[in-house]
Structure formats: structure tokens, C-alpha cells
Amino acid sequence: MWIQVRTIDGTETQTIDDLSRLTKIECLREKIQETFRVSPDRQRLFYRGKQLEDGHTLFDYNVGLNDIVQLLIRSESEAPTAASVRDQDGEVNPCAVSNCKNKVKTTNSGSLSQPSTSSRSFLIDPGIGLYKINELVDARDVSIGAWFEAHIENVTRATKGHRNGKAQGKSGNTYKRTNGNLSQDHSRENANNLDSTPSTSYSDCMDTDEEAIYHIKYDEYPENGIVEMDTSNLRPRARTILKWSELKVGDVVMVNYNVETPEERGFWFDAEITSLREISRTNKEVHAKILLGGPEDTINDCKILFIEEMYKIEKPGAYPLTFGDGDFKRKSGPECKHCRADPDKECRFCSCYLCGGKQDAHMQLLCDECNMAYHIYCLNPPLSKIPEDEDWYCPSCKNDSNEVVKAGEKLKQSKKKAKMPSASTESQRDWGKGMACVGRTKECTIVPSNHYGPIPGVPVGTTWKFRVQVSEAGVHRPHVGGIHGRSNDGAYSLVLAGGFEDEV
């Protein structure tokens, strides 16, 4: 048996002969020292992503005939890697691996508890800005340019840093996301100042609104926490659906559009109507230019599917809405294709993968591998709280840390190899040098298996050392059989002297 040993940079490759599958790794290092002139303590051998360790054999690592083993040569000043502390049996001591970084994601327990609807049915005038606390608004996500339903949690006066950031935000469309608790800066006097009508007009609030920072929370995405925004990305909640007779070319309205899959329901964008076509009383077409926020961020010639759900864009100063006036929620997407976002229907694709329930969304864990959700109380064993690790994997995707072989560790005991006869016998016979039943490392594709006549690239008089090499060359394909042929076609090749007594 032989293998190929190649340096890690690929500059040198040498063949190591006279090996057995039972050859120890330390014996292989001595043979490599004779060829590469590298001492064994400076050798790091790799095969199929595993580091070959002393005490094992080539058979333990499934090293096959003519396989390539990579050689990494340590520098002379570099000592052999002994990062892991081992015990007397050569196993890694888990107590020695400590001081690992545990990235803890902060969870806002206060944000999980939503205030009652009755407490959010009244408007609170903060004294600055256009919008009042508890007012329903549409907030634009500047990363995609879509508008989402939100409500005002608090209004604060902008600091000098906010003003500078706001000046940059006008050109860059950036805003700050925070996960902090709702600040209680407004006084009790403001809490008693309840109002249900616009306090001032839009022109009167321009000066004061330049200094206001709005702390909003998305209605459908409460996990995002409190988000700080300025007035350029806020406007009153859309509430008026436009009829076909009210639509005109050039009007800017709010439409539902899916940028990735135009045939499905998506998010809500501003759009400028470019064409209106009434084919029949029930068949109508609307094409529009989707506006993503920037002056040049547009998508031209988009066909609007949901013509009956086109909203009028409300101007600042419109009548303010609260939760007491109604939900005023729009159908948004993309919906789940299995349950169509039905809140009363169990779904194991968009909700808990084990129970299918959509309750307790804040108690669900999302697997970082398969992207499925799991309730912490549905797991086996159940969890008492959300884990603090940044990455979490479900039981189906998680790799058992005890089965992972790290660099410098011994191989785990293989159940399959433990049941082999060679593992239970006391014989010291070296059975690893046989070449009669080895597998082919390559297969001849120059000619088909039923080929008659000469083979290109194989001159007359070629000799081979092992029978398997004749099969790889395509001359005689069976490993052991002396005749290669079919009863209805003929014999393609014959072995006259292959080392067996019955071959003449």
C-alpha cells in the first residue's frame, strides 16, 4: 500500500511506499522524515480535515490506497501544540478548558409586557413635535423603504448628537435602533394633559419638530423594541382606501408590493401611478413606480395586484388615531404559504415546530441552522428561560460536543470497527498489506466497459505491479475474476497469468 504526502502549500508531493493499513502514525512520521527531512516533532499531518495523532493507525482514519495526506511543517521555534490539558489516559480534561467567551444577548423583560389597550387609548401631548404619545403612525424602515404600522411610545428633545445624526440621516436615511426601556422623562403634568384633536397645524410645528426625537414601537414586530426616529420617516396612520374613480395618473399612493416575488403579497410602499387601464368592469390594471425613499431609489413599471387596497397617504397634521379608534391594520406579507397567516390555525412552519401553536411568541427560540421556532416548554427537557447564548440550535441540528474530535484529541471509539473480527482476535498478523480486495481509486472512462481492442494511452507491453492497477487502466475490469465478458456478447479480456492457480 502507498499514499501521497503533500506539503500544505502544494509545492512538493512524495509517494510513501511499503505501508499497511495497520501502520501506526508514529511509524508514518519516520518514513516522512526519510523523504522530507523533517523531524517527527515538527510534523502535523491532516487527512480529510482531521489531524492524525500518534497511537492510531491509518485504518482508524480510513486512509485509502493512493490517498493524499497533507503535511504542515512547524517552524523550529514553534513548540508542539499542547493547548489542551490531558489526563493519564490521554483524554482531554474538560475542566482545563475554561474562561470561554459567552456572548449574552440582553433581553428586555419590560418590553415583553405590553400595556393595556385602555391605557393607550388616550393621546398625551409631550409639548414638542408633531405627534403625540400613543398616536398611531406609519414608520418607514429605511433599509428596505417599506412602511409599517407603529405607535408613539415617547417623545424627547433631540440632543446635539441627535441633531448632527439627523442632518446626516437626511442624506443617508439612517436611524438608530435601541432596545432600552421606555424612558419616563415626561412629567405627570403632561400625563394629565389629554387631547384627541391636533394641537397645532403642520406649519406651526415645523420649528418645534426639528428638535423632537420619536420613540416608536412596531405593532407587528414588538421584538425590535423601542426605535428612535425623526419626523422624516413618520407620518399619520393611513386609513382611507381609494376607489378606482379616485385614482389618477401621477398620484402618489400607498400600495402593497413584493419586491422579491411580485406575484405574492408583500410590504407597503409609496408608489406613483404611471398607468390606469380598465379592460372590463371586473378586470383592471394599475402600473406604478415604487418609491423606496431616495430620489433615485425607485422600481419602474410595477404591476399592482391588490387594486382594492390602495391607501391615501395622510399628511402631517391629520386627525390623530389611537388604539381606541380601532386597529387600522393592513394585510401585509409575505404570509406563510401553509397556514396563510391564520392566527387560529396551528402551523409547524411559521410557529412552534413541535406543537404548532402560535401563542407565547416571546417564549420561542429560533434555530440558527434550520430556522425553525420552538417553545422553550416544548423542548425535551424543557427550558425554564431563554438561554443567554447568542447561537442556539435545536436537538435535530445540534452536534453532540462529545462526538466532535478536536485538534490534538484521540479518535472516539467506533462501534462499527469494534465489531470487526480483527478487533476481537489476538492474532498479530498484519492483514493491512493485501492488495487483492482494495477499492479502485480511479476508473477508466476513455473506453466503455464492453470495449474490444486496444485502449488509447496503454501501449503494448505495459506491466503493472498489482491487479487493481489493471482494472484502473481499463484493460481488465474485474478485480478477481479471470474472464470479463458476457454470454451474449463475448469476452472482452482474459487473465492468463494473474497469480492464481486456475489461471493458465
From TrEMBL:
One of its GO terms (biological process) is protein ubiquitination. Pathway: Protein modification; protein ubiquitination. The keyword Iron-sulfur does not apply. Residues 170-202 have a biased composition (Polar residues). Residues 453-504 form the YDG domain. Its EC number is 2.3.2.27. It is found in: Nucleus. SUPFAM superfamilies: FYVE/PHD zinc finger (SSF57903), PUA domain-like (SSF88697), Ubiquitin-like (SSF54236). Keywords: Cell cycle, DNA-binding, Ligase, Metal-binding, Nucleus, Transferase, Ubl conjugation pathway, Zinc, Zinc-finger. Multi domain E3 ubiquitin ligase that also plays a role in DNA methylation and histone modifications. This is E3 ubiquitin-protein ligase UHRF. It comes from Steatornis caripensis. The gene is Uhrf2.
